[in-house]
Structure prediction request, 1014 residues.
Amino acid sequence: MGYEKEQAKAGIEKLVDDFKRNKSRLQNQAEAQIENNFIRPLFKYLNWNTTNEGLAVADYEFIVNRTGRGGKRPDYTLQLDGQHLLVMDAKQVKYDMHDPRWLNQVYAYGYSTQNLAPVRRIDFAVLSDFEEFVVLDCTLHVNDPRALRNFLVLNWTCDDFVNQFNRLWDLFERENMRRTARTRHNDAPLGLWALALSPRKVKANRTPPDKAFLADMDNDQNGWRVRLAKDMKKLNPAADGTLITAAVQLLIDRLIFIKALSDREIEDDYLAQLAETVEKDGLAESDNGWFAACGKIFDKLNRFYNGNIFKPRPELEAVTVANKTVRDIIRSLQPENSPYNFAVLPVEILGTIYERFLGRVVRTTEQRVKIEEKPEVRKAGGVYYTPQYIVEYIVKNTVGKLLETCKTPADAAKLKILDPACGSGSFLVGAYAYLIDWHIKYYDTKKQLSAADRAEAYYDSDGRVRLTARLKRQILINNLFGVDIDQQAVEVTRFSLSLKALEDTRREELYEERSLFKETVLPDLNNNIKCGNSLIGPDYFSGKMFPDSEELRRVNPFDWQREFPTIFSSGGFDAVIGNPPYIRMESFKDLKVYLKSNYASHDERSDLYTYFIEKAHKLIKMNGRFGMIVSNKFLRSNYGKPLRDFLKQNGSIESIVDFAGLPVFAGATVRTIILLSSFKPDGNKIISYTPPLSIAEFDSIVNGSLSLDQVLQASTYQINTDSFTQSGWSFLKKEMTELMNHLQAGSIPLTQYCNGQICMGVKSGLSKAFIIDESTRKTILKQNPKAEEVIKPFLNGRDLRRYHIENKRNYLIYTFHGVEIQRYPAVEKHLFPYKSDLLQRATKQAWYELQQPQYNFAKFMDAPKIIFPDIATEPRFALDETGFYSSNTTYFIPKRDLFLLGLLNSRLARFYFINTCAGLEGKNEIYLRFFGQYLEGFPVCKIDLSSSVDVERHNKIKRLVDSILALHKHKTEAKIQTEQDLIQRQIDAADREIDKLVYELYSLNEKEIRIVES
Prediction:
C-alpha cells in the first residue's frame, strides 16, 4: 500500500529534519549508509518499491548497477514497466555534487544510452548526498565535464524537498512519473521531461553518442585519426598512406579496448597508467618514446587477453607518434573526462561507428596528410551501416533456425556461420549474441549444473546462469567466420567480436577462471576472420607470371578451399549472412571478364551484390541457410534475370521482406529487401512475402517499440512461384494476380501502343546555367532577339498535375549539337560564367551544349504530347499543346491522345501503377516512380471497332477528357473560391464517369472493381 500525499510529506519532513540534526556526524559516513538511511527512504515515500519486494528480477524498480572496485557506475537505474527512467548515484555528504567528476560519472552513463531502444534510453541522471539533489539532462552531447553545470534541470537542497514538496511529488512520485514518462516523445511532454528541451528541439540539437564518438575519431580538423596521421607523417616522412592508415587504426583500437575494460570495471585502470607513463616520458614536441615506455603494459595485456588487440604488430613498430598527441587522446578517453561509458554503450553501436570510420583512409604526399573517402565508397554514395533490427531479424531466421535443430552445445558447436563481406562485423556480432543467448537458455533449463557443465556455465550471486569466458571463446572459434577485402575491416571485426566476448563479464569471475584454466581470455581470430576478395579466386591471375603488386593488392584474390579446408571437406558453411556492397559493375570493368566466366548471374549491368548472392549459395552446404539484405532491383530489372534464373535453379527462396523505398539506410536511396533462402536444388513452390510497410509501422520498428517480427506477422502472405516470369517476379496476392492477368488479356502494352516512344525529358548537365526565369529571358532577348530560337518554355516534374500544367514561367536554353553559339552572343554571355563547371562534365560536347543533345528531341518537344512527372503519389498525366521543353524529372509520350490520357489518369491505372512501379516512402504517403520501364507494360485496352458499344465508350472518354481539360482552364481563370469549388465538383463527376467507362471497357466485375478501388 502506497503513501497518500500528506503522509509522504510528513515522512519526508521528518527525514529532512533527521538529516539536518545529524549533519555533522554524517559528514564521513559511507555512501551505503546515506543511501539506506536517507535516499532510499525519500523514494520510498514517493511510492517506489525501493527493495523490489515481490517483484520478478525483470520488473525491479530499483536496479542495482553492480560496480567494481573503481565504483565507476552509478548506483541505481530506476525503471517502471520495463522502461528505464533515471540513473542515480549516491555520494558521501563531504563531496560537492557540482564537482565535474561526479556529474560526468552519471551524465556519461545516461548519455551513452541515447542510441539504445527507447525502453533502455535514460534521459536524466540524479546525483545526491541527500543534502544536495541535482538532476542532469543527459540527452545532449557535452564534451567538457566542466560545462555540465549548465545542463542541470534541478538544483535542490534537502530543504527543497519540503519547501517545494508539491513539485517533488509531481515530478518523482511513482505513478506521476509513470504517467509523464509516456509523454517523453511528445511535442508537449509533461513532468520531468517538460524541464528539458522539447523532443523537437532535442532532435534538432542533439548529437547521439555514435555520431559524437565518430566525430572525435574522424573530424577532419582535430579528430584522433588526423592528429595521429599528421604526427606519424611528420616524424616518419617515408611512411605512406597505407602504413599510416593501418597504424592509426591499430593504435585507436588498443586505446578504445582499454577504455572498454576500464569502463566495464573488469580490469585495472590502464588508461590512467598509460597517461601517467606517457607524461613521465616527456611532453615536449620532440618526445615520442611513449610506445616503448608503455611496452610493459601492452605486453601484460597481451599475455592475459591474447586475441588480436595487443599482440606485437610491425605497423606500430614502424612508426612513431608524439607523446603529447597520444596523451591528449588518452585523457579524453578517461572516465572523468569522457562523455561515453562503454559499460552501457554496446558493441553493436561501436560497430556502426567503425562502419563509417572504415569508409575513409589516410592519403599522403611528401608534404601533406589528407583523410578522404575510399574510391569504392564514393562510387557507392557513402557508407551505410546495417540497422540492428535488420541484423537481428536475419540472424534469427538463419542461425536461429539452425539452432532449433540442435539438442546440445556439442550440436551447436558444429555450425559454421559466414559473412563474406563482414565490414565492421555487425552480422557476426549479432550471430555471436544469438549463440550466447541460446547457450544460456540451454543451461538455464537444467535443474542443476553437472560437474562437466560447470566448465561451460555457472550461477552468479543472483542465481542467473552465466557462460564462462572459456565457452564464449570456443563459440567464437567454432562458429563464426568472416572475409572482407579491406584489412582494416578485418581488424575491426576481430576487435568487435573480442569486445563482445567480454561483454557482461565480471572482474572477479574472469580472474578466477584465468587462474583455474590457465588459458588466455580471448582467442586468436586470424583463422576465423580473413582478408581477401570473396568473389575473386587465385585463378584470376592465371597466365600472368608476375602480376603487378598494386593490382595484386587491389584484387586481393581469396582461395576459399585453401583458407577453410575443414569446412569445405564437410560440405561448406551452414549459414551465410550479411549486407554485401551495392556498386554497379561499370566501376569494375577490368573484373568483368572474370566475373562473366565464373558467375551464372553475370550481366553487363550487374550490381556487385548479385555476385555475392550467387557466391553465398555456392558456399552453403546442402540445406544450409542464406540471409542478406540486398537491393530489390534484381527482382524485376533486366540485369537481374540471370540471378533470378540462378536462384530458381540453385536456391530455395523461403521469404522476401520488401522495404521498397523505406529509409532503412538513412541518407541512401537504395530500395532494399531481406532475402532468406536455403540451399535446396528442388526449390520451394510457395514463399512468404511481406509488402512494404507503412511509415507508422516502420517508425515503430526503428524506435524499438515493436520488433520487425511483430510487424511482419500482420502483413505477410504466401506467393506461388509460378508467378515468377522471365520478365520479373510478381508478388501480388492471388486475386490481384488474377486481376492483372485479366487486364493484360484483352490489351496491348503501352510501349506497343505508342510505338516504343516513352521518352525522358532533357538532362541539362548544369541547371543553374541552362534554366532561366522570365526576367533573365527578357534581358537576353533585349540584347539578342534572335536568341528566341533557342530559348524554350520549360517544365519540371513538380509543375505537372492531373490533366493540367502549372506554368512557372521558366525557360530552357536549348543549345544542342550543331548550334553556332556565335549567332547568340547574349546567350554565350549568360553561359560563359559557368564555362569551367560545364567543362568538367564527362561528355564530349562543346562546353555550351546541353548534356543530353538529341537530334529528334525538338521535334517531339514542339509537338503535342502526354507528359508526366517521374515521381508522384498518384497518376499525374497532362496534355501539353504549348510545346514545353521539360527536365529529366519528366517523361512524355509524343501523342495527342485524349483516350490514352483518360486511361492513364483513371483509378484502374492508379491500381496498376501502385502494384508495378517501384515505391518511395514519403512522410505520410507512398511516392511512385513513373519511369519509362515501369510504364512499358501498362495494358491499353483494345477497342473492338465492330462493337458500337465499345466505340461509343471510347469516344465518350475522349469527350469527358476534353471537358476536364477545359474545366481546368476555367478553374485557373476563376478568382472566386466558390466558383473554383463548383468547377472542381464537375471535374470530379467527369472523373467518376471515366472510371466507370474504363471498368466497362476492361469488363471488370464487381469483385474486381472493389479490388481496384480498395
